[in-house]
Design goal:
alpha+beta; Rieske Iron-sulfur Protein; Zinc Finger, Delta Prime, domain 3; four-stranded antiparallel sheet; 54% helix; globular
Length: 594
Amino acid sequence: MKPPTDSTWIRAFPLAELEVGKSRVFKHDGKQIAVFRLDEATLHAVDNRCPHEGYPLVQGYVRDCLLTCAWHNFKFDLRDGKCVLGDEDVRVFGVRVEDGYVALDVSDPDPSAQIPKFRTSLREAMLAGRVGQVARDVVRLLECGVAPAEVAFEAARFDAERAEFGSTHALAVATDVIRYFDRYQGVDAALPIMQAMDMAIEAGRLRPERPMPEPEAPGQDVAAAGARLAELVENEDAAGAVGLLRGALDAGWGRAEIEPMLFRVAARHFLDFGHALIYQIKVFDLLDHVGWSRAGEVLPGHLHGIVLGTREDTLPTWSGFGARLAKVEPRFGELFALQREPGPDAWDREVLYAAIVDGSGREMFAAMLAALEQGVRLDDILSFLAVAAGQRLLRFDVALDGSDEVQDSWLSVTHTQTFVHAVRAAIARWHDPEVLRSVWFAARFVNRARVLDMPAERRLDVEQLAERERGLANVDGILDAIASKSGDAAVGRTMAYLEAGENVDPLRIALEDIGLADAVTRPIVVAHVIKNTFAAFDEMAAVSRACPGDRRRCWPVLGLVRLLASPLRERRVGRLTHEAIGFAAHGRTPKVLL
């Protein structure tokens, strides 16, 4: 064979070996190229692997330059590779005849030139809800060298632009999955990334981008702009609030100016089961990874959600708490100033814990106020809130999750843990007396969730379970109990494992991977599993530092394990239908306990 006339071209086979109307495959350096000869002078070459699922296009048929994949009826124009029925285009290879040979251009395209095309394809696939195509484009972007955090950010950006009521769990999951990238590297990072993509698709597919208000100049006074933003949010003026935020970003304001402004409005009310504060932490974590220059792509969606969030602290069930908090708010400055002191050498931890877990709302409030008046460190208070939240998960009445009579479910009680986790991050980042409101919201939320506890006679005896399951207190034994939905065994084995002082990392990794294994299927449930897994281990570590030797440090992880080992009710069409019949036909309001 004569050498090719161009170094990027390969002489594949003699033209005489390919009859008119036939096709064949040429393989070179991992490539499979399907060559079609339509007439004496017309040749076309495309990737033999259909971009849909990889089946061989050479086994398809051609009519008028239109190639049909025999496997799923996708159709491609051989001239340019455009997909005219289906989703993704197929790669076209240069083809020509040289001295009686079919020559193919097998050069690889410049990865940097491919990235914009794959990003566009990704967003089109997300909008159409084509999850398989999204996964393939994620892999292609990773292969082109795009950082995994940048690819995950695409989910948060899509969500921020399109979700009707502002950023959703897709933001939280896009941030959380970054923690997997130390173990899932290269193209394997697609697995955690797709959890965020799936959530973003559910929230934003087929939705147009929300209109973006024009930027409003913030002026020179940061404090005045913050007060103006708080006023706009309080008046539920989403356009005005987002416009002011965009103006601040355009003026070059950075995190130092904008994060406190958003903390103040996110913490003014208890919003949407704590989502606003949770997302406040997540969005700035995400920007830490991708850079502040991307802030304008996600912060407006986050703020839009804050403005439209349900202010649950205005509900009747919050009235007593609200009245007590209003009396204490003028003292926030005084109480917060005590945090600058070392804190008491001794204080009655058990009084606070008992009041949060089992006390009335009034008793909880009094215990919290007493602790703050003594100057107890907020980190210490959060540790007991974390233990109490873990106890809530351990006590949750799983019968409620399967009930058609109440709206509260496993997902409801998991928010006690993730909200406490968010408040802990808030006190570390936002050094302002108003952060005390969020601490009190967390205490009220965890305390109020006692209405979801199972009766005392049915509650788990963790010590007894640990003793019973000690022989299987290893990671495999814990995973087996979770897989078989044996909640008591899973909790007992985990407690025995942690008490034995075993290395916690193998257990943490194994439980983190459950969130990626399709063990639960609905994106909203996957989101809660991933969020709670990271929160539980973070909180156990924090409690261990604050209260070394306290067995209750394990409660956050035990609560997580009980969640994972429970038969979660994911599909709620039946319950929603029962509620619809009750409300539309009989005038009954759906029942909420929490």
